[in-house]
Amino acid sequence: GANSLWGGRFAAGPSAIMQRINASIGFDKALWRQDIAGSKAHAAMLARQGIIGESDRDAILAGLDQVAQEIAEGRFQFSEDLEDIHMNVESRLREIIGEPAGRLHTARSRNDQVATDFKLWVRDALDRLDGDLKALQAALIDRAEEHAGTIMPGFTHLQTAQPVTFGHHLLAYVEMLGRDRSRALDARARLNECPLGSAALAGTPYPIDREMTAWALGFDRPTANSLDAVSDRDFALEYLSLASICATHLSRLAEEVVLWCTTQFRFVRLTDAFTTGSSIMPQKRNPDAAELVRAKAGRVIGALNGLLVVMKGLPLAYSKDMQEDKEPVFQADETLALCLAATTGMVRDLTADPDAMRRAVEAGFPTATDLADWLVRSLGLPFREAHHVTGRIVKLAEERGVGLSALPLEAMRTVHPAITEDVFGVLTLEASVASRTSFGGTAPDRVREAVAAARERFL
Ligand code: ARG
């Protein structure tokens, strides 16, 4: 039969396929808490403004509490013919309290209702995300402190560049995650305006108090333009953007873990808790969790692209297209939370192999820049010439199959006769990292300071 909520104008119900394409209850039931909170705030405001009576308000509030309890306890019958969470809740309210339920939807529309619910949901998601990011930062900072002086190759082009410390490398990710948290905070502040009371698109003739509902729901203020309020999904796009950037950070770290776990690198080892074996190759220990974090970033980025494409052609105000906004956000949120938990687990689980890191860094002439800098400082060579001289010395060492510090002084002097014994002081890995004391540099003392500062800033 015709719909109980708009059946006045409709003689017949929808076709089965119409119902299936139209219904959002399958996923928007996730908004039930927000929907009930919004309705309670709205009912309280309607009564305070004299738009509904106090006994109707009391019946509505008590009825909504009962609906909430039924949903929380898993006793609620969600129905697809009631399309979405808003109509499911209202319809059950009518069953429980009867006639007063029909007064709840005064001075509002599902358009402002859904925008309000969804903002509240995204706001909670941002708060959860901040906690998850902080937990990963804490794990990285702990491991960075432990490895403040552990020397590893620093890379450019994935070629050994200069020695750095493992602690310094881990703290790089702490900075990235700090920016992710700050983006989440920005997005939260920007979304925190309440659409409720914008009604369908144009506002409402009832004497509502939008400040009251905004404050009751923890918003800073009501939205300023009713057309914008029901059409705006920037908050979802911002959430997905910052989630995509964050997932990209996790993916880069995951990629490094995958590399570091190879027999070629061996920089780290994950325990059985974070690896899988092969059904055919008994020697294998595969870092599947890291590979999946790397892969799942694709889903989050896909969700962002999906919603951008949904939104880009929509005229003002609401169109049903906008119902497609929720699944990408829900899915991205679930995926990102899982990836953050897995990454935190791996960071805490991994064991570094300082010997393997040292072997790797020694193989790549990592102190060549230190030699060039010595030539500048001690012999007064212009840097460009020092670069050239160092290149020829590296070539000699390569031909002999030794590192720079094992190359005899006489050999170096064939390239530049003024080089002295002193040069060996800058050619060790320890001297190299210890010398990089500029703010933000890799010197172990600097890294220890950075660990303490990161605890202050982030934890
Ligand atoms: N289920 C709808 C959504 O998620 C609620 C808003 C419906 N509004 C409308 N005018 N049909 O967007």
Automatic annotation (TrEMBL):
Any one Gene Ontology biological process term? L-arginine biosynthetic process via ornithine
Q: What is its main location?
A: cytoplasm
Recorded source organism is Aerophototrophica crusticola
Q: What is this protein called?
A: Argininosuccinate lyase
Question: Would the keyword Amino-acid biosynthesis turn up in this protein's UniProt record?
Answer: yes
Keywords, comma-separated and alphabetical:
Amino-acid biosynthesis, Arginine biosynthesis, Cytoplasm, Lyase
InterPro entries reported in the protein's UniProt record: Arg_succ_lyase_C (IPR029419), Argininosuccinate_lyase (IPR009049), Fumarase/histidase_N (IPR024083), Fumarate_lyase_CS (IPR020557), Fumarate_lyase_fam (IPR000362), Fumarate_lyase_N (IPR022761), L-Aspartase-like (IPR008948)
Gene name for this UniProt entry: argH
Query: Which Gene3D superfamilies does the record associate with it?
Result: Fumarase/aspartase (C-terminal domain), Fumarase/aspartase (Central domain), Fumarase/aspartase (N-terminal domain)
Domain of life where this protein originates: Bacteria
Molecular function (Gene Ontology), one example: argininosuccinate lyase activity
Similarity remark: Belongs to the lyase 1 family. Argininosuccinate lyase subfamily.
Q: Which GO terms describe its cellular component?
A: cytosol
Give the EC number(s) listed in the UniProt record.
Answer: 4.3.2.1
* Domain Argininosuccinate lyase C-terminal per the UniProt entry, residue ranges: 365-434
HAMAP family in the cross-refs: Arg_succ_lyase
